[in-house]
Amino acid sequence: MLIEFFFKLREYRLKTSITEWLDLVNALDHDVVHADIEGFYFLARTVLVKDENQYDKFDKAFADYFKGVQSINLFDKEIPEDWLRSEMEKFLSDEEKKKIEALGGLDKLMETLQERLKEQEKRHQGGSKWIGTGGTSPFGANGHNPEGVRIGQDKNRNFSAVKVWDKRQFKNLSSDVEIGTRNIKVALRRLRKFARTGASEELDIKDTISSTARNAGYLDLKMAPERHNAIKLLLFFDVGGSMDAHIKRCEELFSAVHTEFKHIEFFYFHNCIYEGVWKDNQRRGQQTMDVYQIIHKYGTDYKAIFVGDATMGPYEITYPGGSVEHWNEETGAVWMERLLNHFEHAVWLNPQPKPYWHYHASLQIMQELMKNRMYPLTVDGLTESIKTLLKKA
Amino acid sequence: MGFTGTKNYIASKELQLAVNAAITLEKPLLIKGEPGTGKTMLAEELSASLGADLLQWHIKSTTKAQQGLYEYDAVSRLRDSQLGDARVHNIGNYIVKGKLWQAFTAEKRPVLLIDEIDKADIEFPNDLLLELDKMEFFVYETQERIVAKQRPIVIITSNNEKELPDAFLRRCFFHYIQFPEREEMTQILDVHFPNIKKDLLEKALTSFFQIRDVGGIKKKPSTSELIDWLKLLVADDIPASVLQDNDAKNALPPLYGALLKNEQDIHLFEKLMFMARR
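^ Those are the sequences you sent over. The predicted structure of the assembly is below.
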């Protein structure tokens, strides 16, 4: 039975390994939890999931799998009705029994329940709960209706447990959501990965001293790889206009990369890149920087990241004079090509959610110019773009 | 049997289960969560409730995995050799035991806290893989193998500053301490302030959760900050009515410095309160 659960988790792309699986089985073997589905849920989560970003996936997989288990029809013919009835009567007080009589007796109640169950099964296919919780219906897990049939949850707490994973309270930690205040740390960790590449040899003074000491005073030189940040970055931020809606996320990205890289330069542009960009957004009128100058100043080892929503009139990219702010002799596409020819490692991060991309013609054009290296500004998109940046051209 | 929290520490059911699973199966338990949710305290309280010794290994950015095992004090050996000290012939005299070694050779099963593992270098967890898995290591200088007498209870905390390698995570159990709900928070405060005035507690909790709910705050106040704040409120004998006074000229709650630790946050909160009053 648990093998299926394992594969269900894998199906939901949880990175659960066999050793962790064996740990869980071992834990069950040691009776860490016993016949308690909520306990099992927490135990399985503790043993199998090692990142709170994955909790939501786990909740979904768990609900999916246990929906199957829980909808085993308790009221099927296989369960002797007499047994069920005696079990039920244990839960009922005399007063409650009287009320049941008032409703036409237990038989009637059970019948109605069974019918309603069937109905509900039909209507709620794929839903994770059998019967509504709460409410005034006599049939429900949390209902306080005295006539209510409480389906044995006092013993195994199935229903309250379902709520734990059905709540999906870790939803906002899932990594495909957009970068938020909380997720910026996660993004930062991704960026750190590419700060660690690149190495050279240098004298390891500390190791040399201790080796020399070890060597009874005879000099023993030690070399070590230098751990410096070899990545050089150019960031081009789209500002103003439609980007105002995304300003917070861009700020967060900005602050994240800013602390992470030593060789980093920021430039601003509006909508599309033309002959000039600017370094200080306050003085964009006076202090523009020639794009040619950027190409000459920064070597091809610099990697370029463009951040913008790329939503504008298509003519702003494809026509001379298309810019909304000034007269451009050459088209934005030409300038983009120039930059991309020089900086082979380049990506475009788009704060627009990906499903909306195909609504904008300009975005398609830009995507083509970028040779499909446009990624959504989400944690996942950032990871993807980092991979692309690190690829050998 | 098992850990159920202590009189100073309220542990949620999930946390109890995670701790007990880790104790039973002798696996390290990795604890993550917002700062101030009692990650480090867990180890302290766990050792207290089990009556076990607590060994704390606080990790810094410069900590190396080797330091947890042992260190070879080559420099004092060099000095001793110059002075002709007889001790110099036995290399074992210059091996300084690390926390892991101490934990492995302890008489009684201890609790080992590896605090803030994410502060260390990115390779740090990988360097501890075998040691935490097999609970043994080899001392090259003296050619001896140190094997744990019994596997210590290992609690590892992380603040999420660096991602931990998968191979390391596979060997741990994991629990994410969630920020407590209001009811749990009341329990926690009952433990810390048994004699606090009921209405003050109510009002304080309300303003606390209000502050936490304000969007855009950079560092949300945590449990430990709430406790500090309440301590101040009690010490200054501030009446509950002050907290309730929403349309007072002073928009910020008294002694807000204990809750909001960032001037931008204070500024933002002030602005929001001002807007709310209009």
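Chain B touches chain A through 36 residues (CB under 8 Å). The longest strand of chain B covers residues 153-158.

Shout if you want it in another format.
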